[in-house]
Design goal:
By secondary structure, the protein is of the alpha/beta class. The protein has two domains: 2-215, Rossmann fold, CATH 3.40.50.300; 217-299, Alpha-Beta Plaits, CATH 3.30.70. Helix content is 38%, strand content 29%. It contains eleven helices and 13 strands. It has helices at residues 42-49, 71-74, 92-102, 108-117, 131-144, 161-177, 189-192, 213-217, 227-234, 259-267, 277-299; strands at residues 2-13, 16-27, 31-35, 57-62, 77-81, 149-153, 181-185, 198-203, 206-212, 220-226, 239-245, 248-254, 271-274. Strands 5-6-7-3-8-9 form a six-stranded mixed sheet, with helices on both faces. Strand 11 and strand 12 form a beta hairpin. Helix 4 packs antiparallel against helix 5.
Length: 300
């Protein structure tokens, strides 16, 4: 079932387009990775989908309806963001009690386990919590809400490596028992790559990639070796990154390599390496930015 349907979504701030013709769908019971550079449009997109911002133009449907001022829709959504604000005198216990009243699927037993896992001080005022503890409050709400559509907008950046792993483990375990649609916006791509089932890459307000994670992983390769041999092999291919040192070149190309390609590489004395999901996304967004810069320069 389609949970979210977005068509030709545009969001402009004066002369700048935060979103520029975005179209996508989110399906039921899938963990998505919404990935991209700072300022790419990730938070703007999630804010519009959760009715916390308004589009300039385009269509948004969540659970088949317009989400704006729609309690039927908003009661099924949880949006946890890094910059979440709470009343000055609130304690974590207050935040969790409010969440329990708002989310119909709230699981207090899960919340209590997570509070213990993250060693969260329940009697400390939220404004006195460390950044990591504040992140834990958001993560606990996002998981214990068991909302049918849950967005995590970098709420776990304040967590240390151990706490982030706890979050990933608890998310996966609870998702297995209670499937729902989850959108993770993250810069820690390698850390979340084993969690996400589908990758959406947004760059400069446009969707650059929208595909299953397993399909994306084999989409690029890095060819390393003599500069002339590398140039000959990569001629006519879609090159997304190129660097060299003396007579040695390293070139990343899009497209799967078949048996003939690999035989050619071996015969030419060239090495081939796999490209991680993070490397691919970094190269793709660099490639996009550089291409636009060259285009603008040519126009001038």
């Amino acid at each position: 079932m389609t949970v979210v349907e977005v068509t030709d979504l545009v969001k402009r701030y004066k002369d700048a387009a935060a979103l520029d013709g975005v179209s996508l769908t989110l399906q039921e019971n899938v963990i998505y990775g919404l990935l991209g550079r700072n300022g790419a449009g990730k938070t703007t997109l999630m804010s519009i989908l959760t009715a916390q911002n308004f589009p300039t133009s385009g269509s948004v449907r969540v659970f088949g309806e317009n989400p704006y001022e729609n309690s039927r829709v908003l009661g099924r959504i949880c949006f946890v963001r890094e910059s979440q604000r709470y009343p000055d005198d609130a304690r974590p216990s207050h935040a969790f009690r409010m969440a329990a009243m708002f989310f119909p699927n709230w699981d207090q037993e899960l919340a209590d386990r997570l509070i213990a896992d993250f060693r969260l001080p329940m009697k400390t005022r939220i404004k006195k919590l460390s950044r990591g503890q504040l992140s834990a409050v958001g993560v606990i709400i996002g998981l214990a809400s068991r909302a049918e559509l849950t967005f995590f907008d970098e709420p776990y950046l304040g967590l240390d490596a151990v706490a982030r792993q706890i979050f990933y483990d608890r998310l996966l375990a609870d998702y297995t028992e209670h499937p729902r649609t989850v959108v993770l916006s993250s810069h820690l791509i390698d850390e979340v790559s084993d969690l996400i089932e589908r990758v959406i890459v947004i760059d400069q307000g446009r969707i650059l990639l929208d595909d299953e994670t397993d399909a994306v992983r084999g989409r690029a390769s890095t060819i390393v070796g003599d500069v002339d041999a590398v140039a000959a092999f990569t001629a006519g291919r879609d090159v997304i990154h190129r660097e060299s040192l003396g007579r040695v070149a390293s070139v990343t190309v899009l497209g799967e390599l078949d048996a003939d390609d690999r035989a050619h590489l071996a015969a030419s004395g060239l090495e081939v390496g796999s490209v991680s999901l993070q490397q691919l996304i970094v190269r793709l967004t660099q490639h996009e930015s550089e291409s636009e810069s060259v285009t603008e320069g040519a126009r001038r």
